[in-house]
Amino acid sequence: MSEPTKLRAAILDSVEEHSNVATFLKVWSNSKSKQSLVTETVVELSKANAKRFFVSAKSILDTVIETEAYVPQSCFSDSEAEAEENDNKNSPPNDTTAATGSSDSAYNPNDTTFATNSNSSSASNILEPEQIVVPDEQSSAALKFIKVLAALIEAYLEKNSKDMKTFSSDNLECKILAMAESLNELMFELQTCGAEGVAAQVAVGNMCERWWLKDIKNKDMLMTHLIPLLCIKSLENDATEKDLKRLYNLRDAMSLLDFADDSIQYLKGLLLRFPSSGIHLKTSDGKKMMVFLFTLHHTFVQELSLSVKAQIPNAKRWMLKAYGEIYLRAWKSLEDNSEIKSALEDKVFEPLMIAALHCESTSLQANVVLLLKPLHEAKKGPDVDALLNRLYGPILWRSLKAANPGVRVNGLSILAETFPLRDPSDSQAVQNASILKACEVLETMLKDDDVKVRIAAADATARTLGTFWNVVNTKNIRTLINILLVKHISDSSSALVRVSAINAITMILENPDSHGLLRSVMPFMKNMIHDNTERVRLAMVKLLLKVKTIRGLKFYEIVSQEYLHARMAAEVDNINGPVAVALTDLFESSYFPKEVDNMEQIKRTVSYLRSNPVSARVFFSNLKVKVAVGTIAKFSTMLLKVLDVAVSTEKAAAEEKAKEMAKAKSKKSKGKRKHPEQQQQEDADEDEDEDEDEETYSASETQLMAEFAETIATLWESIADKLSDARHNSSKKFLLEYFGGEILTNVHVHFESKSAAALSEINLLKKDDSDAEVSYAFVKEHRNSQRVCYALLRCAAQMPAKSVSGLAASLVEKITETAKKSIEIRNLDDNDDSCNIEEEFDFNLSPHIALLCLWGKTDDVCAFLSKSIRRAFVDDDGEDADAGAGADALEEPKKKGSKKRKQKETEILAKTDLPEINPIAALTILANIMSGKDASSVAAREAIISNSRGCSMIEASLETARVMAERMMSVNNTGILKGDDIEAVVGACEIYGKLALHKEAMVKEEDSGLQLNPEAKGLLTWLSDSVFCVLNGRSGARNRDRSNSAASSSNSNPLDSSISPIKMGGGGEGMGDLLMSPIAAEPARQRNKTQTQDSNSNSNAELQPYAKAMALALLKTGLVVYNEWLAVGGGGGREIGLRVEKWGTLLVKEDSDGIDYKGALFVAFCRILLQLFKSGESGSGRSLLGKMLEVDVDEGDEKRVWKKVLGGIVALKKKKEGAWVVCEEVIEACTFDGGGGKTVLPKTVQELLNGGGGDGGGKGGGAKKIAMEMLVGSSVGCRDLANFVGKRIGGEGGGVRGNDKVLSFEERLLGCMHYCGNKNAQYEVNKAVHFYEGEGAGDGEDEEGGAVEGELMREHVRKLVL
Q1: How many CB atoms lie within 10 A of CB 1067?
Q2: Beta partners for 115?
Q3: What mean pLDDT value characterizes the chain?
Q4: Bridge partners of 880?
Q5: pLDDT digits (tens, 9 = 90+) for 150-192
Q6: Which H or E element spans position 127?
Q7: I need a labelling partner for 1077 at 20 to 30 A (CA). Which of 436, 707, 898, 1049 fits?
Q8: Cβ contact 521:485 at 8 Å
Q9: DSSP assignment of 462-475
């Protein structure tokens, strides 16, 4: 017997009667080759043998199912009751259960999780096979039998599907179908049988799928379980495109579903989850499946669309686009006039279109429009065009005329999307009328009163003309363009309208047909380049960039180069802002073209630096955005080479000139010195004669050299961050090699000598009383030479000290020379002004000091500055400089370890090589470093603060200034007040405050915000307890007490006694909790007893105004410091607010000494008022605002800043902490000033405050008048004010309403806003005014219970309405 015959016999014997699973599986070997051979043998069986095989296998399968042998024993419970419960849960589903899929079981062939087939959706039914299901021998064999049997049936179907046409009760096909149905019934139960059960389930599913795909009869009977399982699989997180493709291939099986039957509710629930599945929206088969679902049944369309709607608010853009494509493809796939297509139009498209027009949320409306975008873009097809006209036509034109501006805005966006809205089947005349109607609507909307509507109209106009320029009538085009360029461009009420107009022209330029008309009208927009709003300027530059890309249009024909360079120069305050960057992009091809040689590039750079130096500075600062790092590095070295050659040229010329002068020495005669510019011109002429073909540059042209040097420094600083990246190591190495050595030192020394020579000439010319023009020329040469030196130091700051030979020694030498001069000047008489000019130019050592800090000399620098500053307030022996003026001793409590700390400071002072300098110069240096004007100053500031010992020394020196301030504000220090002393004290206190704040900013933790450190808190306490007391008049009373006694009583109140000495450490008086560094205590000194009490009194009377002036300067400095602190988000706002609130009383204080407190402090109070509101301290802000409303504001800066601050507070998001506080305080201030109780509604703010109509009233001027005018005149302020007044009237009843004889202030204010308020706020104004027309007008009751009729107000309201 042959091998195939033996195998065939074995197969048939394995399923004969009395056989079981074990005998069947003996034939099915684990070898894949043997399995393949068995499968082929079964497939090739004759019909008779195949019938014998499958009938016998069916009997084995029935036994397995009946005994549940496929269920592992671990799935059963030992408890009989629990076993019964589990049997109920795991019972085989009937047809209805399988079809509805009432189980929440999960289909997972990867065997990660699986669930029981129960009717409960509880998560407790989810089992993990590794933890719960333990396979056993019996269940494993049964599951393998099911798997093998399903695979054999699938193979038989693949081979013999064409012969399976007749299904009688006793033929082979019927037996196979019965067995397939039995296997299909097991699919859900197999999910609970562990990994082997899931493998069997997959095999059964493949069999059912093969039956359907081969289109064998009765295929629908095998889909009841397969379709739900495939839906579940496609919704899992690990679903693949293959899973979706399988489901899509079986899509026609869903057509058999009866959507009116409740048995498919579970399957419908699965299908309704498809819109929220990402893989269904990303893959092609997923989208096609969604399209098919919309064509299943007209009732299912609405349910599926509701599922999509639920995703719209939070859907991503790609999801919304996918939804739109699915809708469009589904609509196109349906037949015309079908019930499903009508449902799609009425139940899906129409509600979405209504939502796109009437949705209040702008983000939600944008999402809806994005979903409809595929439909809008398909309007080129006549069927879609007709659909849009049919659905949008009845609602769009009404929306564009709606009273709500939000609806009009939405309508304009839809009009732009669907223009032209027409039916292609209509006549041409009807279509033209539709286009004309749309243009008229755009024209009307461009003139709308609402800002948002005008902005949306400009955008819609741009999109319409940019696409359909040739469709719109020429007359309509010109009308729309004129409105944009005349009305919108000059709209002063909103910068956004001006921006929208410029952006509209930019969009219209996309259409080449528009260039002919726009070429002649765009020059009218040139002034927009200088608009006050940055967004407008940026939009204008972007327009020019667009013009630059269009052939035949020149951007400088729209805005002249003079205008552009002036704008670029004006952006120097925001040198790296968006406008400056955009202008750099605009000028790049002109001043830094890519394909030119080095000489040509230098010529262009020189031309730019000479003609527009400030503009060039901004340009080169932003060149890094468009040019590679290596290119900028190479260009920097080129400029340095030119600078070095220019120095060599000047030196050679000087040597040649010296030789000529030596030859002509006998002929030399005395005469007037030559003008330096004249000499420079002569040198240039000589150079030109020597070589007319080659252009050379000389260092004698100091202004050009200064621009060169600053450009080099700017370029290097602009790429400093990128050079730290390893990718640019080659560029960094190239710069260090070229700039290293002595080249920087030589150029720096040369210009230092030029600066000194020019300064000597200035002094000589001043003594000779020479021509002022000649003197100014030397001043320019001196300043330009200094600019070169400072720029070179900025370059050196980017390099290590060892790379620059000799520069450190040169810096120390410069500081030493300056120190000697400063000491000489300090010793001169105060009335000797002979060195004023020299002081002005020689004392700027900030760049030198900053560079030394960067080069690791921070200890020396701190000691140098500390010693110099301390010298202003303390003598050489450690005593205060004014101790001999009769001041009382400032006793300091000794601290443990203070001698040791002082000894360390002395050691640092002994190590420094830097000499003492003038204290004012030292303070100036430190102030420049704290301000961080350039990168080197910022780095130096960080180096000083990070050096704890050096920073403590500087703090200790600055603290001595406050000791001096206490004494200078003391009235018994007659004659010690000098201008330099006051300047030094105020400057030192300001620097101390900024140093404390910068120190806190550097050491703050990431999680915690900026908090006031002890130094900053102590300064705040000192300003409040000591400085403010002098201004508040308490110091005078205190000193009168001191004049009658030798010392104050130790138990007296410090506010009523003398200004207490500064206590070192916490818990003391005056400085409070400030932790100050110890200062050597001065010995106690006796009061000068020779001076009589009367003379003291006279001196005190003369000194008091000076002491107050100094205290005023200190308080203003404190306001500036803490304003900056709050502006950067610093904490401690409540503590600062309470102090500032107390200081605000000075604004209304009248002093007999004639000191203008308000004039000195008002602007500073304005700025800190805004920061208090921004930081959330509205309580202190409200109190300070009430005080500021009582003052008279001068024209100029005070009025401008006051209006700006009020506008900033009103614009805050939290109305109850911003706008409403302003409204309430302004109303209270005006009411208290006599603004209420009148009988006539005013038409202006002046009439409102003055009681127009001859009724009298309070004075209508000052801060409150400006505040009221600002609120009524601005759209936001007027809206908030009307809303606030309306709520007060409606919420408080008759308490703020008048009666039948007089009007309350709030009622008169409503009338004023109705007459002169901003149009954009009329909705809120009219809502409040019309309150009196309703029932609420007579519902209020006064305190006695009587009705407040308000007849007078209702009479006025009727007049207003008419």
Answers
A1: 8
A2: 126
A3: 76
A4: 874
A5: 888 888 787 777 766 666 666 777 878 888 888 888 888 888 7
A6: strand 126-127
A7: 1049
A8: yes
A9: HHHHHHHTTTS-HH
Rounded CA separation 1344/308 (Å)? 60
SS3 category, 1200 = helix
Distance CA 478, CA 483 (A): 9
The DSSP result for 894-958, as a single string, is --TTHHHHHHHHHHHHHH--PPP--HHHHHHHHHHHHHT-SHHHHHHHHHHHH-HHHHHHHHHHH
Quote the tokens at residue 468: 């359909």
Neighbours of 987 (CB within 10 A): 22
Q: What is the pLDDT of residue 1320?
A: 61
**Ordered alpha helix ranges (H), 1189-1218:** 1197-1210
pLDDT at 476: 92
1237 by Cβ neighbours in 10 Å (0-12 / 13-18 / 19+) ranks as middle
Question: Which residues, at least 6 apart from 787, have a Cβ–Cβ distance to it below 8 Å?
Answer: 706, 709, 710
Q: Which helix (H) or strand (E) holds 680?
A: helix 676-690
Phi-psi category of 547—alpha, beta or left, where left has phi over 0 and alpha has psi -120 to 50? Answer: alpha
Strand pairing partners for 1238? 1303
Please say whether the beta carbons of 1166 and 1144 come within 8 A: no
More confident residue, 390 or 1084: 390
Q: Which stretches within 400-427 are classed as H helix?
A: 405-418
For residue 264, give every residue at least 6 positions away whose Cβ sits within 8 Å of its Cβ, in sequence order, or none: 99, 100, 257, 258
Confidence of residue 391 (pLDDT cuts 50, 70, 90): very high
Which three-class secondary structure state does DSSP give residue 1191?
A: coil
Question: Which token pair is 124?
Answer: 């407790």
pLDDT at 919: 82
Residue type, position 937, single letter: S
**Nearest 5 degrees, angle CA 830-CA 835-CA 840?**
105
CA distances from 466 to 458, 469, 545, 1252, 1334 (A): 12, 6, 18, 53, 49
Close Cβ partners of 1065 (under 8 Å, ≥ 6 residues apart): 893, 895, 1075, 1076
Q: At what angle do helices 979-1003 and 919-931 cross, to 10 degrees?
A: 30
Residue 93, pLDDT score: 42
- Ranges assigned E (strand) in 925-1062: none
Q: Which of 764, 771, 938 is nearest to 850 (CA)?
A: 938
Both tokens assigned to 1114: 């200190």
For residue 1266, which of 1331, 1220, 1205, 1337 has the smallest C-alpha distance?
Answer: 1205
More confidently predicted of 669 and 1012 = 1012
- Collapsing DSSP states into helix, strand and coil, what is residue 687? helix
Beta carbons of 245 and 285 less than 8 angstroms apart: yes
Give the separation between CA 984 and CA 961, rounded to whole angstroms.
8
Residues 6+ apart with CB under 8 A from 391: 345, 349, 350, 353
Exposed, middle or buried, 802 (CB in 10 Å: 0-12/13-18/19+)?
A: exposed
Distance CA 781, CA 755 (A): 7
> What is the C-alpha to C-alpha distance for residues 1091 and 521, in angstroms, rounded to an integer?
83
Are the beta carbons of 8 and 49 closer than 8 angstroms?
A: yes
Strands 126-127 and 114-115: antiparallel
Q: How far is CA 1230 from the centre of its chain?
A: 38
Query: Tens digit of pLDDT for each residue in 477-532?
Result: 999 999 999 999 988 888 999 999 999 999 999 999 999 999 999 999 999 999 99
Burial degree of 1260 (CB within 10 A; 0-12, 13-18, 19+)? buried
Amino acid in position 253: A
Residue located via tokens 């105020």: 986
| pLDDT band at residue 120 under the 50/70/90 scheme | very low
CB atoms < 10 A from the CB of 163, how many? 10
Distance from C-alpha of 841 to C-alpha of 838, rounded to nearest angstrom:
6
Confidence grade of residue 1142 (pLDDT, cut at 50, 70, 90): confident
Amino acid letter for position 663? K
